[in-house]
Amino acid sequence: MSNNLDEIMGKLKKQYDEMPTVSSSERIMSQIKKEVKPKRRIFFRHWQAVAMIVAAIGIGSVLTLNQLDLEGAHSNSETSDTSSIGEATALEVTETEEEEQFLNRRTEEENDTALKHDVETDESSENEAAIFATGITEHKEFALNKEGQDETITAKRVSVEQLGFVTYVDEKFEVDPVASREGYALQIFANFGGGRIEPPILTVTEYTDAFSSVAEVLTFIREENKNYDITEDKLFTIHRPELISEELMVLDTANARTKYVAVIEREGRYFILETTLVGELEEAFHAHLNYMLTEFTWSQ
Predict the structure, then answer these.
(1) Which CATH number is 122-298 given?
(2) Any residues with CB less than 8 A from the CB of 159 and at least 6 apart, and which?
(3) Burial of 163 per CB tally in 10 Å (0-12, 13-18, 19+)
(4) Is the pLDDT reported for residue 32 higher than 60?
(5) How confident is the model at residue 61 (pLDDT cuts 50, 70, 90)?
(6) Which residues of 164-176 are buried (b: 16+ CB within 10 A; e: fewer)?
(7) Where residue 71 falls among pLDDT bands split at 50, 70, 90?
(8) What angle do CA 103, 107, 111 make, to 5 degrees?
(9) Residue 150's beta-bridge partner residues?
(10) Which is nearest to 191 in space by CA: 113, 115, 112, 285?
(11) pLDDT at res. 283
(12) Residues 113-166: pLDDT tens digits?
């Protein structure tokens, strides 16, 4: 029995000795490695998923920004096109306005020409500024003595509303109303068949609110003619003494011209009458001027 026990113990000891001493620690490390490796694979799989998501978001953002840029460029293009259309429309409107202004100016010029023609063809009309009217409504004949012989002349009636007088002149004479900021005037030019003769045979002028006395008018006349000899010789006064307040003669020796300037005061208004006698026409001017002054009457 003792021998059997010894035999059993010997086998056990042998088996124990044959077992590796590091088996326990190796198994532990092997088990640890097995447990760690799956965790690393799981970690890497998670990182890859996150990276793909980030990449997808980045690509989406780039595409979105590009789309916005394209839309912005398209919007700017539409705005530019709209602006160009607006500028073109404004240009067309400006050109249309300029054409209308040109046509209006042309119409005004045609009206002015028609006005002058009406005066010259013995029709009633109003002057360009509609300030006063020159109307020729009647004709009559008168005997004019020239160079000792009587000549029958047809005269036309001239009425100046704003100046307030009426007279008769040879129908061939030209009548021009003149309006300005300073006042109103009527110029009558002689015409004996060869065209208008300068200067006017008679000019009647009223300066608006310029004078308060005859003395002021005479001072103005002297100042206007200070480069010429001035005397108190008369012409208008001889023909119509009751009409004239004062009169001066202006002598232009260099041009052989004599100008008479008379002042008429009427109801607080002051009128200046002028006539210039030129060389060989002096006698004819005298005769016609005498007739115009004889027929001169106030209409208002």
Answers:
(1) 3.40.1000
(2) 133, 134, 135, 136, 137, 165, 166, 299
(3) buried
(4) no
(5) low
(6) bbbbbbbbebbbb
(7) low
(8) 170
(9) 145
(10) 285
(11) 85
(12) 544 444 444 444 444 433 444 555 588 888 877 667 788 889 999 988 889 999
10 Å Cβ neighbour count for 276? 21
pLDDT tens-digit series, residues 153-211: 899 999 888 899 999 999 999 999 998 888 999 999 999 889 999 999 999 999 988 99
pLDDT single digits (tens) 267-282: 999 999 999 987 778 8
Pair of tokens at residue 287: 């005769």
Contact status, residue 247 vs residue 263, Cβ threshold 8 Å: yes
Amino acid sitting at position 270: Y
Q: Which two tokens stand for residue 161?
A: 């509303």
The amino acid at 288: H
- Is there a contact between 275 and 259 (Cβ–Cβ < 8 Å)? yes
